[in-house]
């Protein structure tokens, strides 16, 4: 026999399947506020369907988006107007990054797919002096604070789904079709390793099962 909690979880899954909204895109505007109004070259790592890369193109001289999924990269190209200064490339950031340096590097919900300290070191080495790195990531819930934020996010998630979709059933957006995997590092482990590689990095837990990192190259 199913427990009441199991039925609640199944009901929430059905609700969100019919009224999806992108938790990562929720942080795009926040991310842009961490960046200069104008900058030169930008790199978006794990660019997916290209939503963030296209936003960066409104401020950047040029933007490169990389993703290791050829189908997702093809979709990003299809969705991008030819006039935008954006190039999407199939590339595995676990192996290496395109030739820098970059004034801005962004990475949203992709870092948990990659070797953590090594990828942060690549980001650091690819930034210009004064360049900015902004990461929105996913962590494994471990502490009371993690679980409390997760519990708080559940009703807020329902409200956001209703507001963003105006209560209607909608199709799953292209930005939510990429393959995902669960995070294995806790926020405490992420913060420890990040500050070892990026001294002075600012990290915070966030709602909707996310954390953020902002760092500027000295």
Topology:
Elements: H1 4-18, H2 28-32, E1 39-45, H3 51-56, E2 60-67, H4 70-79, E3 86-90, E4 102-108, H5 116-126, E5 127-137, H6 144-165, H7 187-197, E6 202-206, E7 210-216
Parallel strand pairs: 1-2, 1-4, 2-3, 4-5
Antiparallel strand pairs: 5-7, 6-7
Helix pairs in contact: 5-7
Instruction: Count the domains.
Output: 1
Q: Total number of β-strand segments?
A: 7
Which strands sit side by side, in order, in the main sheet? 3-2-1-4-5-7-6
Q: Find the structural class using helix and strand composition.
A: alpha/beta
Binned, the helix content reads 25-40%
- First-to-last CA distance: 59 Å
Shape by Cα distribution: globular
Indicate the CATH class: Alpha Beta
- The chain-level mean pLDDT equals 85
Strand content: 15-25%
- CATH architecture classification name: 3-Layer(aba) Sandwich
Stretches where pLDDT is under 50 for at least 5 consecutive residues are: none
Radius of gyration: 18 Å
Q: How large is the count of helical segments? A: 7
CATH topology: Rossmann fold
CATH superfamily descriptor: Vaccinia Virus protein VP39
One letter per element, helices H and strands E, the order comes to: HHEHEHEEHEHHEE
The profile of the biggest β sheet is: 7 strands, mixed
What is shown here, in short?
With 218 residues, this protein is α/β, with parallel strands linked by helices.
What does this structure look like?
It is globular, with a radius of gyration of 18 Å. Helix content is about 35%, strand content about 25%. The protein is α/β, with parallel strands linked by helices and about 220 residues long. The protein has one domain: Rossmann fold (3-Layer(aba) Sandwich), CATH 3.40.50. Helix 3 (about 50-55) links the parallel strand 1 and strand 2 (about 60-65). Helix 5 runs parallel beside helix 7 (about 185-195). It has seven helices and seven strands; from the N terminus they run H-H-E-H-E-H-E-E-H-E-H-H-E-E. The chain has a seven-stranded mixed β-sheet with strand order 3-2-1-4-5-7-6.
